[in-house]
Task: inverse folding
């Protein structure tokens, strides 16, 4: 592609990156903490595009009009197929990809890690915990800090091959490409009809029940459900708390 075309592609990429950063679309790709770097990258790309066009103008103004002509006086042009490079940009601008969900969760082993410690839990009934915090305390602290507490946990629903329900959040290190699930099995008063990928807020109590994840062999703790209700998907579908 010539310099002008390169500048157009750079400008489109920068604009798409800025749009993703300002609208929250970036949360489908990277963790929230990377937003400043993403916005800075968009500004740099647009600045590079503008600079390319600016410095190209005097060069073209003084260029020999016959310099690019080949045999027969015809100018050599870049293949039009090179413009297909902009198609992924339009896909980024026009189509918001869904967050990773139940299919990925049930085909990937649980990423539960041993926490650095178990800080004292605040007062409250029910006590809101994220999926990774509940699972870590249930597995590695053997539920000692969870006993005699009503726990509130929110996640999306995933069903295994036998229809058994799990509450899941995708844990994020950097970006969606490295997202891995943390899973909680559900038992007790489970809704009779559950659809995969719907978001559910459950209230329940700790149970000693746990199973081994058939994918990867990690431990999956359970929560004894006393009540539940569907909730809208959160603005940020990924959980970054598991790794600080």
Result:
């Amino acid at each position: 592609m010539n310099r002008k075309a390169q500048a157009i592609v750079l400008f489109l990429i920068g604009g798409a990156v800025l749009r993703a950063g300002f609208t929250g679309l970036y949360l489908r790709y990277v963790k929230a903490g990377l937003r400043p770097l993403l916005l800075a990258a968009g500004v740099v790309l647009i600045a590079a595009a503008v600079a390319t066009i600016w410095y190209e103008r005097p060069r073209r103004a003084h260029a020999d009009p016959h310099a690019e002509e080949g045999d027969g006086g015809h100018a050599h042009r870049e293949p039009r197929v090179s413009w297909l490079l902009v198609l992924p940009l339009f896909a980024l601008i026009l189509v918001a990809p869904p967050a990773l969900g139940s299919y990925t969760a049930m085909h990937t082993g649980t990423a539960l890690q041993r926490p650095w410690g178990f800080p004292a839990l605040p007062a409250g009934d029910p006590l809101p915990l994220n999926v990774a915090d509940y699972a870590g305390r249930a597995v590695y602290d053997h539920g000692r800090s969870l006993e005699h507490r009503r726990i509130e946990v929110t996640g999306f629903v995933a069903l295994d091959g036998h229809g058994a329900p799990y509450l899941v959040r995708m844990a994020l290190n950097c970006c969606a490409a490295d997202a891995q699930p943390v899973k909680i099995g559900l038992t007790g008063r489970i809704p009779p009809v559950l659809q995969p990928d719907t978001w559910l807020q459950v209230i329940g109590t700790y149970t000693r029940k746990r199973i081994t994840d058939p994918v990867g062999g990690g431990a999956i703790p359970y929560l004894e459900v006393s009540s539940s209700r569907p909730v809208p998907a959160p603005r940020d579908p990924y959980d970054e708390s598991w790794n600080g």
Notes: The helical segments are 3-23, 35-61, 87-94, 102-106, 131-140.
